[in-house]
Please model this.
Amino acid sequence: MFIFSLFFFLLIQYSIYKSIVEVPKAWDALVAHDIFLNSAYLNALEHASPVNINVFYIGVFKDNDLVGVALVQRVQMYLKDMFRNTKTSCIKSVLKNAISKVLKGNILVVGNLTHTGQHGLYFDADKISKTNFYSEVFKGVTALKSIFKTTHNKTIRLILVKDFFTEDVFLDTTFFQKEKLHKATVQPNMIMSVRDTWSSNEDYVASMNKKYRTRYKRAKKKLNGIVPKEMDLEAVKRQSKQLYELYLNVSNNAKFNTFILPENHFYALKDNLGEAFKVFGYYLNNELIGFFTLILNNKHLETYFLGYDCKHQYPNQLYLNMLYDMAKFGIEHNFDTIVYARTAMEIKSSVGAKPRAMEMYLKHTNTVLNVILKQVFRFMNPSKDWQERHPFN
Model:
């Protein structure tokens, strides 16, 4: 019995891959439910990743069959990358410097730091248990730590596993506790469920109460000649510079951020994903003044990055109009949900999105710093007072 058990254990193993072109052919079939784990998306991410992020992959095998996968990112984080707005008080500067000392350096993220949600892990629960799957993934994470130390002389400071809904079937709190990972509650993911009674945008607007119906009409009027238009691959390539400048207007305004996309990011996604990646530009007198992007993830419409000319944001209510247009696309193309992601929760709730709680798990490799990690992470993701809106009758 002992010999048989040992033999059975040896049938489960992991492999690390440095590029998506190296993974087994069975990869895409296993993760067909999630475009963010698909090789087309991951190939785009590899070739248009933020300069401080490197992508790796872990395959988990049983009887030589691929039964689970994990996306792992090595992230280099420094003060200038984390805090964009340098005009802060002396006290806040001290706090920022203290935080950067805890977080700076090399981090391993099990998941995708560039997008909200759990898009970094999957396994076939009929073929492998959660415990065995995570055991192999973390063996791979440990191996990656050693690789960076021996080949690059880089010490991994932090391990982060992101982003789980509290009821996620792939969440294994027992294993994470055993690995001494702290749970950290982060801002909710704002998601709108598309009602069965909505077959058109008109149905969506009609379901609003009078206050929000008036708000919708007022926002549309404030566009004042601004025309939204889908951009094809050639348009995205031709206007990559303008898209990037508009994206930076929004990204650089964030108080805390962990990366900056490269200029070729949107073109790479459009080139690799084709019709599964949508770019909508907003034009005023044929000049691009704003845009938003969408990723079509089976029955879930995932909102992605956007950008705008700040001088048009408030007078033309560009951001609100973008949220409405995202909803319109999702409804008219029969998606079940529209994933608005985190941040700007109040305005997203005003168009119909509801908050869903999310959590991450993390630990610092320094024992002392690991003790204060939860408090540091709380500062990074402060609980904001915001009023949820209820636009529907």
Observations:
- The radius of gyration is 22 Å.
- The CA atoms of residues 159 and 278 lie 33 Å apart.
